[in-house]
Design goal:
The chain has helices spanning 51-54, 56-61, 63-66, 71-77, 85-97, 115-124, 136-149, 162-175, 198-213, 217-228, 230-233, 239-246, 281-294, 304-310; strands at 2-3, 8-12, 15-20, 22-27, 33-37, 43-45, 183-186, 192-197, 252-256, 260-265, 270-276, 312-315, 321-327. The protein is of the alpha+beta class and 329 residues long. The chain has a 6-stranded mixed sheet with strand order 1-5-4-11-10-9. Strands 3-2-13-12 form a 4-stranded antiparallel sheet.
Length: 329
């Protein structure tokens, strides 16, 4: 197993001003850890990185196809979208297909995560709604699971609801853990969040990559939707969308809150998971890029949109570059 140094620093001038400790686990095609940084047994919340597994029960049940949904709806179900008009409209159409409305979503409203989404909302004077929540697609899919199964939609977000029990079962299975070893808490959007070791997060994404490569139907459809609908996964200026676009889908990434990121490399059957110890989002992006360089998905010369994430300028209020955020070594 290869030992990695993936810590990230923020500099000001020639001095290191801040340091972020980074844990990572890389699982290869044989289901074993092939590279690591710091502690792969670290237990952390998976947050939005679990979304591809949370939508699996809806696909497996046949409910997704009964609704005549396609790649757009599937991509948004896996997304942490930027709250741009296209995202909001698609989430609303998904609810309309169920005979439901915005008020049926258990997530709360928050400002669009995309700069474009925020700008367009402000200029339009429209009301901020739950549809702008970056998880509204996931919630619409969970409501669809309840609706097509004949379960009550009220309370679908609660731990004891059949929807959440299905999601737990899927997440545990793909991560290679008994259900009782997966921690459960409340996510930022109100549904159940799972906690598990970093190694198991990476194993789930490696298995997802291999299942796609082996053309297993449900994972194949999920990864295909993510690869071919990058804008819906994040948005105009969101890291995951940029990464999928710039790699032509050779890497499929999913951001999670508090410094968590999960990535699949389908052609190699590799999956990896990253956790920034202090939860700083700014530190996870250069780590994801460096790992993709290590496995030849990205070269040493990066497209401009990714290069800025590898060495991100620190600017003062006058727009002057006064430092950078970069890997420590």
């Amino acid at each position: 197993m290869t030992s990695l140094e993936l810590d990230v620093v923020a500099t000001r001038g020639a001095e290191i001003e801040s340091r972020h400790a980074v844990h990572a686990a890389v699982v290869g095609a044989d289901d074993a850890v092939i590279a690591s940084a710091r502690d792969t047994s670290l237990v952390s919340s998976w947050r939005s990185c679990a979304k591809p597994f949370q939508v699996m029960p809806l696909l497996e049940s046949g409910g997704f196809d009964d609704l005549h949904w396609g790649d757009d709806q599937l991509a948004l179900s896996c997304a942490s979208h930027g709250g741009e008009p296209e995202h909001v409209a698609l989430a609303e159409r998904m609810l309309n297909d169920l005979g439901l409305e915005e008020g049926d979503l258990a997530c709360g409203p928050h400002d669009p995560l995309s700069a474009r989404g925020m700008k367009l909302l402000r200029e339009s004077g429209a009301r901020l709604t739950r549809l702008h929540n970056n998880c509204s697609g996931k919630h619409a899919a969970m409501l669809a699971r309840a609706h097509t199964a004949g379960w009550h939609t009220y309370g679908y977000e609660r731990r004891e609801h059949p929807v959440q029990r299905c999601c737990l079962q899927a997440a545990a299975q793909w991560a290679g853990l008994p259900e009782e070893r997966v921690g459960q808490a409340v996510d930022g959007c109100g549904v159940v969040a799972f906690a598990l070791p970093l190694e198991n997060m990476a194993r789930a994404w490696s298995r997802l990559a291999r299942a796609y490569r082996d053309e297993d139907e449900v994972p194949r459809r999920i990864v295909h939707a993510m690869r071919t609908r990058p804008f819906l996964i994040g948005g105009t200026d969101r890291f995951d969308s940029i990464l999928i676009e710039e790699t032509d889908g050779r890497a499929v990434a999913k951001i999670g809150a508090e410094g968590v990121h999960s990535v699949a490399i389908p052609e190699q059957g590799i999956g990896f998971a990253v956790k920034v110890d202090d939860g700083a989002q700014r530190a996870q992006f250069p780590v994801v890029i460096r790992l993709l360089q290590m496995f030849d998905v990205l070269g040493s010369s990066l497209p401009p949109r990714l290069d800025e994430y590898l060495r991100r300028p620190v600017r003062n209020t006058r727009g002057e570059t006064v430092g950078e955020i970069r890997l420590a070594s």
